C-alpha cells in the first residue's frame, strides 16, 4: 500500500456550502458522456441460475432507458431488482437476450471500463472496510488518475453533499459509522467520478425518515439538474413517486408495468394495486 494516494481533506472554507453551490460545482464537473445516446436497453433478457431446475430469476425483460431518465425499479423483496442492476453493469451476463449499455452489449464491454462509467450504490453500501471514508469515495477518481488536490476537493464536496462533515468523517473507517452514514458514503462514492450512469440499490433504506426525506429531495434536484441516466431500486412507492420520471414494476422476475408516476397510480393491475393500497392511510389513523 506504499503507493496508495493520500486523500487529505484539504482546507475547509465554509463548513457547509449551500446545496445550490454544490450542485453548480458538480454540474461544472460533469463529463460529456462517451456516447451520444447513453442509454441502457434490455432486449429479451432472461437470467437463470444454474441449478437443477434452471430457475429463471428474471425473464422476458425488454426495456429501454433513455439518457437522462430517472427510472425507478419497484418490486417486492425477491422480485429481481438487484439482479437487473447486476445485469446492467455486467456483474451478471444474461442467459438469453442482450443488454446494451451506450449501444454496446455488456458481453462485449471490457468489464472494468463498463463499471468505471457506472456509479453503483450497493444495497448494503459495499464500502471497503480497510479504507477510510475519504479513500472509499476517492476510489474511482484515483483509479482514473485524478490529481491529489482535485480528488481531495471532490471528496470534501461529496461528503458535504450527503450531509457528512468532512473534518469529522473523512478519516473514519466504515466500521466507525452508523448504517445510515455508511449508505451516505456509498452515495458519495457513486457520484464522485461523475459517471453518466448511476445504479442505486435502495440507497436510502437505512436512513431515519427525516434524513431520508431530505436526501430524497436533494437527490431529486440533483438528478434533474445533472441529466444522468439513473436506475433507482426501491420497494417504497412513496420514494418511487417522488424520484421517478418513470416507474417500472417487477413481479416475480417479470416486468408488469411501466408508467410515469401519475399514470402508475391509475393502472389497473393487481400488483400495482397492492402497492398503491400500501399508501392508504391506516384505518383509524388521524386524517
Ligand atoms: N446467486 C443466486 N442463487 C440463487 N438464487 C438467487 C441468487 N441471486 C438471487 N437469487 C434469487 O433471485 C431472486 C431475486 O433476487 P434479487 O436479489 O434480484 O431480489 P430483489 O428484488 O433485489 O430483492 P430485495 O428487495 O430483497 O433486495 C430471489 O428469490 C433470490 O433468492
Ligand atoms: Mg435487492
Key words describing this protein structure:
287 residues, Rossmann fold, 2 domains, 6-stranded mixed sheet, 4-stranded antiparallel sheet, 12 helices, globular, disordered N terminus, binds magnesium ion
Textual characterization of the structure:
This protein has 287 residues and is of the alpha/beta class. It folds into 2 domains: 164 residues, Rossmann fold (3-Layer(aba) Sandwich), CATH 3.40.50.300; 58 residues, no CATH class. The protein contains 12 helices and 10 strands. β1 and β2 form a beta hairpin. The termini are far apart. The site of magnesium ion has 4 residues, from α2.
CATH superfamily of the largest domain: P-loop containing nucleotide triphosphate hydrolases
Corresponding CATH architecture of the largest domain: 3-Layer(aba) Sandwich
Q: What would you report as the Rg, rounded to the nearest angstrom?
A: 19 Å
What fold name stands as the CATH topology of the largest domain? Rossmann fold
Strand percent estimate: 15-25%
Helical coverage, percent range: 25-40%
Strand order of the largest sheet: 6-7-8-3-9-10
Oligomer: single chain
Ligands present: adenosine-5'-triphosphate, magnesium ion
Topology, number of strands: 10
Rounded to the nearest angstrom, the distance between the terminal CA atoms is 58 Å
| H/E element sequence | HEEEHEEHEHHHHHEHEHEEHH
Helix/strand-derived category reads alpha/beta
Count up the helices: 12
| Tally of discrete structural domains | 2
Question: Which descriptor suits the 3D outline?
Answer: globular
State the CATH class of the largest domain.
Answer: Alpha Beta
**Quick one: biggest sheet?**
6 strands, mixed
Identify low-pLDDT runs. Answer: 1-36
Mean pLDDT: 82
Amino acid at each position: 500500500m506504499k503507493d496508495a494516494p493520500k486523500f487529505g481533506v484539504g482546507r475547509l472554507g465554509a463548513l457547509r456550502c449551500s446545496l445550490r453551490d454544490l450542485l453548480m460545482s458538480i454540474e461544472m464537473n460533469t463529463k460529456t458522456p462517451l456516447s451520444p445516446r447513453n442509454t441502457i436497453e434490455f432486449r429479451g433478457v432472461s437470467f437463470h441460475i444454474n441449478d437443477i431446475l434452471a430457475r429463471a430469476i428474471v425473464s422476458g425483460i425488454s426495456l429501454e432507458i433513455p439518457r437522462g431518465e430517472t427510472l425507478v425499479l419497484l418490486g417486492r423483496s425477491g422480485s429481481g431488482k438487484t439482479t437487473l442492476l447486476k445485469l446492467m453493469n455486467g456483474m451478471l451476463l444474461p442467459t438469453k437476450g442482450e443488454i446494451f449499455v451506450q449501444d454496446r452489449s455488456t458481453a462485449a464491454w471490457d468489464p472494468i471500463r463498463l463499471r468505471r462509467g457506472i456509479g453503483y450504490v450497493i444495497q448494503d453500501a459495499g464500502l471497503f472496510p480497510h479504507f477510510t471514508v475519504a479513500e472509499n469515495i476517492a476510489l474511482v477518481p484515483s483509479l482514473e488518475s485524478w490529481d491529489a488536490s482535485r480528488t481531495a476537493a471532490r471528496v470534501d464536496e461529496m461528503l458535504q453533499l450527503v450531509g457528512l462533515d468532512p473534518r469529522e468523517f473523512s478519516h473514519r473507517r466504515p466500521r466507525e459509522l452508523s448504517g445510515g452514514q455508511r449508505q451516505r458514503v456509498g452515495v458519495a462514492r457513486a457520484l464522485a467520478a461523475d459517471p453518466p450512469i448511476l445504479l442505486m440499490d435502495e440507497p436510502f433504506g437505512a436512513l431515519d425518515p427525516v434524513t431520508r426525506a431530505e436526501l430524497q429531495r436533494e437527490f431529486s434536484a440533483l438528478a434533474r439538474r445533472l441529466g444522468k441516466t439513473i436506475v433507482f431500486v426501491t420497494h417504497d412507492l412513496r420514494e418511487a413517486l417522488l424520484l421517478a420520471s418513470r416507474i417500472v414494476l417487477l413481479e416475480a422476475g417479470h416486468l408488469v408495468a411501466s408508467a410515469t408516476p401519475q399514470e402508475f397510480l391509475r393502472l389497473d393491475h393487481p400488483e400495482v394495486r397492492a402497492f398503491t393500497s400500501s399508501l392508504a392511510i391506516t384505518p383509524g389513523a388521524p386524517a
